[in-house]
Amino acid sequence: xxxxxxxxxxxxxxxxxxxxxxxxxxxxxxxxxxxxxxxxxxxxxxxxxxxxxxxxxxxxxxxxxxxxxxxxxxxxxxxxxxxxxxxxxxxxxxxxxxxxxxxxxxxxxxxxxxxxxxxxxxxxxxxxxxxxxxxxxxxxxxxxxxxxxxxxxxxxxxxxxxxxxxxxxxxxxxxxxxxxxxxxxxxxxxxxxxxxxxxxxxxxxxxxxxxxxxxxxxxxxxxxxxxxxxxxxxxxxxxxxxxxxxxxxxxxxxx
Length: 255
Fold this sequence. Notes:
The protein has a two-stranded antiparallel sheet. It contains eight helices and two strands; from the N terminus they run ααααααααββ. It has one domain (3-230). Strand 1 and strand 2 form a beta hairpin. It has helices at 7-27, 53-64, 83-86, 89-96, 109-134, 150-166, 168-187, 193-221, and strands at residues 234-241, 246-253. Helix 6 crosses helix 8. It has 255 residues and is mainly alpha-helical.
């Protein structure tokens, strides 16, 4: 059981290494004069203040409903559980749509994976930290993990990633899925309305922040190939200090 607490750390390390490998693999399949592939800035990675309007408003309104709940939506209803799986559909679409011929996307698979991992890490940290801090009771069980809604944050994060990468054509469908999941969290008495609002804001903000950070991550992980031997080597591995019982991370890159 002690080891289970460090599984997320191992997953993050593996994901970062896979991102670098995927980007390196893709760049090796193109002509030599196009190997300076990864680092570029477009509208999806540029910060604009207007992007903060929805997440800031959703988080603010959701926070205002802590303890008061804004609207009491509890009722004796038969619970539906499909939202537990549906929450991941936009994220799966974000990764997979780029492999379909004819679907226009902004970034290669390595960059998409980096953005996805970063968004998930930010979303998880914000949600879990806020749950522990606020300790809002759930409407059904009373467990003090209601604010904000993690399911809603996950699905809205995926929907915003789809919108940023593929545009509103696919983004609108992803947001329809996100709205459905948010509504089902309230319908199933798992969350209050304000929990869902705040979760949506956290999810959208996490996806946007991941894209703002993407150019920096690309500079770190997607190096221009240098001659026959390729880019410098990178090692990213979890560590554990048994004396202080503390996990850590080691990172080494050769240039």
